[in-house]
Design brief:
By secondary structure, the protein is α/β, with parallel strands linked by helices. It has a single domain, classed as Carbon-nitrogen hydrolase (Nitrilase/N-carbamoyl-D-aminoacid amidohydrolase, 4-Layer Sandwich), CATH 3.60.110. It has 8 helices and 14 strands. α1 packs parallel to α3. The two termini are about 30 Å apart. About 45% of the residues are buried. The protein binds the ligand NC(=O)CCC(=O)C(=O)O. The site of the ligand NC(=O)CCC(=O)C(=O)O has 11 residues, from loops. Keywords: Hydrolase.
């Protein structure tokens, strides 16, 4: 099955949801004009890492920025995935990625499992308590956010549970962009699935973000990779490629499940 994906590599305006929603709106229009089925946005794209202002900037899922995304998804008939600051009924904050589908519905939501201490997430946010696999119209899709990329067991659990792709919104600094590229490729190759990752660009405080948003196929090839500027890039993937790669090198059948847990 063919799936057209756009990555909206945004230069996030810190602490200004209105400015970022305007950018997301332009990106959704651009992606829709390019024929995309799914638009992926970065991690915390509506606010950036201004976690000290979570009380003012976080929204309950379904409200505020999440409702704006639903409006964009309906208007442009496009699925949208990206993470924003959320709050729950007890006013606890999380880094939440929602898969928003046209027609006024969300297919699922995921709270970042591994909080990134270097950017103080552990001081402000509550970690997620479970992996989330979305039943998308193109097959099962695992949800991950940025630092989660360093934890291969999350990706291997998704693959074992039938994922054909994992979507990763991120704010990954330029200084470690080689880790970003290497880990994304490794996760795709070792799990023989598509890895779809959207980073941001620009600078927030002292941190410069690395861009290089990309889609990686189950063989480790990179059909599309952005540079280090704000842009929307689009590519078409064929989910049937997964069966071809898994037939060529049957790592899932060859796993030593008698020795290791997956
Ligand atoms: N926002 C993040 O989770 C950043 C993760 C990161 O930079 C890393 O090196 O890992």
């Amino acid at each position: 099955m063919k799936l057209t994906i756009s990555l909206g590599q945004m230069d996030i305006v810190p602490g200004d949801p209105d400015a970022n929603i305007a950018k997301a709106s332009q990106m959704a229009r651009h992606a829709s004009d390019a024929g995309a089925d799914v638009l992926v946005l970065p991690e915390l794209w509506s606010t950036g890492y201004v976690l000290k202002r979570a009380g003012e900037l976080a929204d309950a899922v379904g409200h505020g920025v999440f409702a704006e995304v639903q409006r964009l998804s309906d208007e442009h008939a496009i699925h949208i995935v990206g993470s924003c600051l959320s709050k729950d009924v007890s006013n606890q904050y999380a880094n939440t990625s929602v898969w928003t589908a046209p027609g006024g519905r969300a297919l699922g939501q995921y709270n970042k499992l591994h909080l990134f201490r270097l950017m103080h997430e552990d001081q402000f946010l509550k970690p997620g308590d479970r992996p989330v696999l979305i039943d998308s119209p193109w097959g099962k899709a695992g949800m991950a956010i940025c630092y989660d990329l360093r934890f291969p067991e999350l990706f291997s659990s998704y693959a074992t549970d039938g994922a054909i792709m994992v979507l990763i919104p991120a704010q990954w600094p330029k200084v470690r962009v080689e880790h970003w590229k290497t880990l994304l490729r490794a996760r795709a190759i070792e799990n023989q699935m598509f890895v779809i990752a959207c980073n941001c660009v620009g600078q927030i405080g002292p941190t410069v973000f690395g861009g290089h948003s990309c889609v990686i196929d189950p063989w480790g090839e990179i059909p599309i990779q952005a540079g280090d500027q704000e842009e929307v890039v689009t590519t078409v993937i064929d989910t049937d490629q997964i069966d071809d790669v898994r037939a060529r090198i049957p790592v899932f059948s060859d796993r030593r499940t008698d020795l290791f847990q997956f």
